[in-house]
Amino acid sequence: QVQLVESGGGLVQPGGSLRLSCAASGSIFSIVTMGWYRQAPGKQRELVAVFTSGGSTNYADSVKGRFTISRDNAKNTVYLQMNSLKPEDTAVYYCNADLVSDPDLDGIDIWGKGTLVTVSS
Predict the structure, then answer these.
(1) Separation in Å, CA 45 to CA 95, 105, 111
(2) Which of 14, 38, 47, 118 could form a disulfide with 91 if both were Cys (CB 3.0 to 4.6 A apart)?
(3) Torsions phi, psi for 45 (to 5 deg)
């Protein structure tokens, strides 16, 4: 069974920084895409940053220049470095991955349980 486990959320003041981690574990043959989404209260879940199938990165316009996604392929882990945080960044941050656990089976899309980021003074 494959799962994603996020960590690193918490309370931070405006202008501060946080680093989120997401580790994929279980039977993993390959990871196609992996990245971060967020959902603020009363809003739809939205893309934050993701590694595409080609290895490039996509960012939401609202976080460009402030957030950086990185990864450690050996550990099947992605990170989200969040700087210059704003109150509007407050949300539950979810890790998502499209991956193949068995080359003879279809790929799967999985989500982590989420980690809460609160930006407030």
Answers:
(1) 12, 28, 12
(2) 38
(3) -65, 140
Write down the residue that tokens 């895409």 correspond to: 33
Kindly report, residue by residue over 57-73, the tens digit of the pLDDT. Answer: 999 999 999 999 999 99
Residue 14 burial (CB count, 10 A): 13
Q: What share of the chain is helix, strand, coil (3-state, %, to 5)?
A: 5, 55, 40
pLDDT at residue 97, as a whole number: 97
Q: Look at 102 and 70; give whichever has higher pLDDT.
A: 70
Q: How far apart are CA 63 and CA 59, in angstroms?
A: 7
The residue length of the chain stands at 121
> Does an H or E element contain 4, and which?
strand 3-7
- Taking the C-alpha atoms of residue 26 and residue 98, their distance in angstroms, rounded to an integer, is 14
Q: Is residue 69 classed exposed, middle or buried when 0-12, 13-18 and 19+ CB atoms within 10 A define those classes?
A: buried
Cα separation, 113 vs 12, whole angstroms: 20
Number of other CB atoms surrounding residue 85 within 10 Å? 22
